[in-house]
Q: What sequence folds into this?
DNA sequence: GTCCTAAGTTATACTTAGTACATATTAATA
DNA sequence: TATTAATATGTACTAAGTATAACTTAGGAC
C-alpha cells in the first residue's frame, strides 16, 4: 500500500474506473459500453480513462499481470529437486486447493466467461495474454535448466503446457455451466491437467524440463 | 472457375483489392496503410473494400479458409486404418514434400512473417485463426471416432497438436531467419512435429485418436 | 431487343476507439 | 510561500467499421 497521498489518489481513481467499467461490462456486454459511458460512471474525464488503461480491454483484464508474476515466481523459486513441468503440475493442485480466483468455478466466474465469449475484442485479448504466458513460461523454464531462452524444447514444453491448461479451463467451465457443480468442474480441470502433463513429459523427456 | 460474367467480375474486383492491399501491407506495414489508400490503389470505392473484406485483416489472411478446408478434408477422407493423430503427422511430411505454401521458408514467407510480427492486429487475427483450427480439428477428430464434438480428449489432443504445429512453425521460421537455410528450417519443423506428436500420443493413448 | 430484378458498387453520414498536444490542477518540496 | 512535477482533463484529430440509400449493370423473361 503506497503511503503518499498522490499515489493513493491515483490508485483510487484507477480502481474507480475499473469497478465502474467491470460493472457495466458484465451488465451490458463489453461491446455495448462506450468509454464515454465508463468515464461518466466513474466521474472522471475520458482522457483519464485512457491515461490509466491504454486500451478498453485492459479495464476488464486487470489481473493478468499478477497472474504472470505468480508464474514467474513459482518457476524461479521452485524446489530444485522438482522439475519445471512437475512444479506447474503441482501448482494446478495448489491453486485448486486454495480456491484461487484463476481456477474458480462459480456464478461470478460464469459471468466473466460469458462476457468474454460474447466479445471478439475480449477473446482477442485473452488469446494475447495466453501467448504472453506461453512465452514467459518457455523463458522461465529455459532459465531453470540453464539453456538459452529460445531453446526449442522449452518452447514446445511451454506451448503444450499452456494448451493443456487452456483446454482444461475451458472444459471445466463447460462442466460447471452444464451441471452447476463446482467440485465436478475442479475435478475435470485437474484430470485434464494430469492428462496433458503426461503428454508434455513424453514430448520433452530427457531434456531436464521434466 | 465461375462461368458467368457477374461472378468473374466480382472475383476480379476482390482479387484486385487483395493484391493491392497485400503489396501495400508488405511494403509499408499493415498499420501504416489505410483502407482509403487500398481503395485508391485498387481503383474502387471504399465501401467496395468493406463489401469484399469485412475487416481490414481479411485482406491479408486471404488463404485461411482454404487451409481449414484442407484440414477438414484430410481428416474426413483419411484411411480408416490410420489414426487421426497419425494422419496429421503424415500431413506435415506431405506438406513439406510438396512444398506447400503453408510450410514454405523463403524470402517471401519471411516478409509475410515479419509483417505479421509488426502488427498487433495481424497477430490477433493469426491467433483467432489458430483457435478456429483447434476447434475444427477437435470436432473432426471426434467425428472420426464417433464421439460427441465436445469430447474432452478430442479437445486436448487438438489443443496439443495445434500448439505443436505453432511452435514448430515459429521455430522453423526462426531457423530460416538465422541461417537462410530452408532445408534446415524444414528439418526443424518436422523434428518438432514428431516430438510434439509423441507427446500427443502419450496424452490421449487408448482413446482411439492415436 | 426491351424490360425487370437483383447483384454489386459507391457516396454520405455516422459512431467509436485511440492518439497528439496543450492546459489546468494539485501534491510534494525547497 | 513559491516552485515543480505528477496527474487530470479538454480539444482536435485519425481511421476502422456500420447503416442506409442511391446508382449501375448483368442476366433472364417476354
A:
Amino acid at each position: 500500500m503506497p503511503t503518499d497521498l498522490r499515489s493513493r489518489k491515483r490508485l483510487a481513481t484507477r480502481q474507480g474506473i475499473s469497478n465502474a467499467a467491470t460493472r457495466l461490462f458484465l451488465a451490458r456486454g463489453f461491446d455495448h459500453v462506450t468509454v464515454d459511458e465508463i468515464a461518466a460512471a466513474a466521474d472522471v474525464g475520458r482522457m483519464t480513462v485512457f491515461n490509466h488503461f491504454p486500451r478498453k480491454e485492459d479495464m476488464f483484464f486487470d489481473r493478468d499481470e499478477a497472474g504472470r508474476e505468480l508464474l514467474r515466481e513459482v518457476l524461479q523459486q521452485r524446489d530444485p529437486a522438482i522439475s519445471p513441468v512437475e512444479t506447474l503440475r503441482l501448482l494446478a493442485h495448489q491453486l485448486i486447493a486454495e480456491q484461487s480466483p484463476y481456477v474458480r468455478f462459480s456464478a461470478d466466474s460464469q459471468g466473466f466467461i460469458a462476457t468474454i465469449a460474447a466479445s471478439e475484442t475480449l477473446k482477442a485479448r485473452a488469446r494475447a495474454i495466453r501467448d504472453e504466458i506461453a512465452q514467459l513460461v518457455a523463458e522461465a523454464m529455459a532459465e531453470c535448466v540453464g539453456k538459452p531462452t529460445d531453446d526449442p524444447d522449452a518452447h514446445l514444453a511451454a506451448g503444450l503446457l499452456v494448451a493443456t491448461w487452456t483446454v482444461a479451463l475451458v472444459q471445466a467451465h463447460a462442466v460447471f455451466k452444464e451441471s452447476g457443480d463446482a467440485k465436478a468442474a475442479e475435478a475435470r480441470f485437474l484430470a485434464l491437467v494430469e492428462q496433458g502433463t503426461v503428454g508434455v513429459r513424453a514430448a520433452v523427456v530427457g531434456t531436464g524440463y521434466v
Observations:
- Residues 4-6, 9, 34-36, 50, 54-56 of chain B lie near DNA strand D (CB under 10 Å from a C1').
- Residues 152-179 of chain B form the longest helix (28 residues).
- Chain B has a mean pLDDT of 97.
- Chain B touches chain A through 34 residues (CB under 8 Å).
